[in-house]
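Exercise 7b. Backbone tokens:
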């Protein structure tokens, strides 16, 4: 497999003028050292979209969109990473180098690419057949007309008709026995025992019977973000079960990651700064036909965190639409759980419950797009829905009811990244439960303490016998360096997690201004690299990266994070918002966050030492050293 070397990516980003790249799609005006314009990713009247030529980075302060020139082409033009790099390299007059893998790996990669290309070709041939059969079927056309769909809408979404024939696709594929038909999900295979063979099992298997998966159904081609067909959905015309059938999991189609209509809705989603998630194919098409073009649908499965992450790449607000019955509320609860890890102060999720007699399709046909947009505007914020969900069916005027609500909320709140939004939800929950916020925070943390005790750790979270070296290092503020040795196992790996908000604050600043890594003491360095969350992973990566790149730009850091698979973790901390602030302005915040983390660890370590009885001189000496450092930190924090 050919790979694009990271050194080339860094050089390319250094040569490319991001103002020119973005300026092809956005009208930019000079604003000091930067350029500003109307954000192409959401609808706005006043410019909040900035492009920095010095940082080679763009950022929208309205919807939070951000990235390098490569990222802009990927998000705005829908390009793949290799295509975006290839286009920029071509424009910069750079020849794209390759890192060649061994001959066997190259052969396997080429075979896999060829195989996937053949699968896509098979699906395209099937789509053409289904569309041709729709034109020939008066019954199927009458069904679509009865649902209020126009010929233009049917053509836009590529609707077709699978005839009522067990092997109708044999008219398109003379070799109906081909494994490709099974592997694409178009044909169902059963073995001699009558068991269905999954597409991944089809190659070379003994098949006793095979037949078309979709028969006498309206067909809906499912496309990926590049517009390629990866599967099909099918709906019965009359009564029958199941009402909908989707392609099975294949090499091309993974229903937990894909969304129906996303390819067609991308530009509308970016204009609105919002995406509407509905439950059916026909909901998407009917809404688009009536002017509500920013809707997508899940593919016969509950919304997943992968769905949420994909949608947040296109906009900052997701609105889920569900039926107002009990099943709809259960689906909404599952969607809420999937959305919680992706929340931030710049992102929002809402829930729309239509009247019981309507789904989005029937509502927009009966009452029109304006009425539907008004319903969207009244959608319930996730924070309100979460609190209602936590308290549902409980007597919150009793201690027992409030305790149950706290138990219900513990796992949900733990899923939300540290942010101002999480703090506000905690505040509102405390008010609803008539419980002081500090007591609620302590109650929500109790379960973690019990888990620690059960796993052999002390109540402070420090493992028995754990003797991290920070106390003996003196905490003397020794400055770390870019070349600091990377320990195979960080000295504080078994340290319990300090307050997440301080660790996130520190890492957020460091990702925006990596040069501040020099200002971290040895003790604080150890705390960061040993942090048991994504912060520790990012800190270890950043240290290694800075060993090789002394003065990186934000764009080069961003693309290096993408290459390492860490971009999602970094984006969750929202460091892009800090790029416009001077590093010197953020130094006090960084120092305060790091010293707060250090104080929390010192207190935990002292508790552990005290629990051991301070029986030997070394323990007493360490305790005294920690006390001196703690007093030093407590004197400095008020000034910060």
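Sequence design result:
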């Amino acid at each position: 497999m050919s790979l694009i070397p990271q050194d080339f990516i860094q050089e390319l980003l250094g040569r490319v003028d991001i103002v020119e790249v973005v300026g092809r799609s956005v009208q930019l005006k000079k604003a000091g050292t930067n350029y500003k314009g109307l954000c192409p990713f959401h609808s706005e009247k006043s410019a909040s979209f900035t492009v920095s030529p010095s940082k080679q980075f763009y950022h929208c302060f309205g919807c939070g969109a951000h990235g390098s020139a490569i990222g802009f082409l990927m998000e705005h033009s829908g390009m793949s990473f290799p295509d975006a790099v290839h286009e920029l390299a071509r424009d910069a007059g750079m020849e794209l180098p390759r890192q060649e893998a061994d001959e066997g790996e190259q052969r396997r990669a080429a075979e896999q690419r060829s195989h996937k290309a053949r699968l896509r070709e098979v699906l395209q041939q099937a789509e053409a057949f289904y569309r041709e059969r729709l034109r020939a079927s008066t019954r199927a056309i009458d069904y679509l007309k009865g649902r209020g769909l126009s010929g233009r809408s049917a053509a836009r979404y590529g609707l077709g008709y699978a005839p009522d024939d067990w092997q109708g696709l044999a008219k398109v594929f003379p070799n109906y026995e081909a494994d490709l038909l099974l592997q694409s999900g178009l044909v169902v295979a059963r073995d001699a025992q009558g068991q269905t063979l999954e597409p991944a099992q089809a190659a070379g298997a003994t098949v006793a019977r095979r037949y078309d998966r979709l028969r006498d159904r309206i067909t809906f081609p499912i496309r990926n973000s590049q517009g390629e067909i990866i599967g099909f959905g099918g709906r019965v015309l009359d009564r029958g079960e199941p009402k909908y059938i989707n392609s099975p999991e294949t090499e091309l189609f993974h229903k937990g990651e894909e969304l129906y209509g996303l390819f067609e809705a991308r530009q509308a989603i970016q204009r609105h700064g919002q995406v509407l998630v509905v439950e059916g194919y026909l909901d998407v098409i009917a809404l688009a036909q009536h002017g509500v073009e920013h809707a997508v649908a899940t593919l016969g499965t509950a919304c997943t965190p992968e769905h949420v992450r994909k949608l947040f790449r296109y906009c900052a607000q997701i609105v889920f639409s569900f039926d107002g019955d009990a099943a709809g509320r259960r689906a909404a609860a599952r969607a809420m759980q999937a959305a919680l890890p992706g929340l931030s102060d710049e992102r929002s999720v809402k829930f729309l419950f239509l009247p019981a007699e309507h789904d989005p399709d029937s509502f927009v046909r009966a009452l029109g797009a304006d009425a539907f947009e008004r319903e969207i505007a009244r959608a319930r914020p996730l924070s309100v829905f979460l609190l209602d969900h936590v308290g549902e069916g409980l007597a919150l005027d009793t201690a027992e009811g409030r305790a149950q609500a706290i138990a219900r909320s513990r796992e949900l709140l733990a899923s939300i990244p540290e942010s101002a939004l999480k703090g506000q939800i905690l505040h509102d929950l405390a008010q609803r439960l008539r419980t002081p916020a500090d007591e609620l925070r302590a109650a929500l943390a109790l379960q973690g303490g019990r888990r620690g005790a059960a796993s052999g750790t002390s109540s402070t979270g420090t493992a028995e016998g754990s003797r991290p070296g920070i106390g003996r290092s003196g905490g003397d503020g020794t400055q770390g360096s870019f070349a600091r040795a990377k320990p195979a196992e960080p000295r504080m790996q078994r340290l319990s997690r300090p307050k997440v908000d301080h660790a996130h604050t520190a890492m957020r600043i460091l990702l925006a201004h990596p040069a501040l890594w020099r200002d971290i003491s040895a003790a604080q360095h150890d705390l960061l690299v040993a942090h048991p969350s994504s912060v520790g992973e990012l800190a270890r990566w950043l240290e290694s990266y800075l060993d090789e790149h002394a003065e990186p730009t934000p764009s080069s850091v961003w693309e290096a994070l993408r290459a390492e698979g860490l971009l999602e973790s970094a984006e969750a901390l929202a460091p892009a918002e800090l790029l416009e602030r001077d590093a010197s302005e953020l130094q006090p915040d960084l120092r305060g966050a790091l010293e707060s983390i250090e104080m929390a660890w010192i207190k935990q370590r002292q508790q552990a030492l005290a629990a051991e009885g301070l029986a030997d001189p070394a323990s007493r000496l360490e305790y005294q050293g920690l006390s001196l450092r703690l007093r030093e930190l407590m004197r400095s924090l008020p000034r910060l």
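Instructor comment: The chain has 26 helices and 19 strands. The domain at 110-246 is CATH 3.90.980.10 (DNA primase DNAg catalytic core, N-terminal domain).
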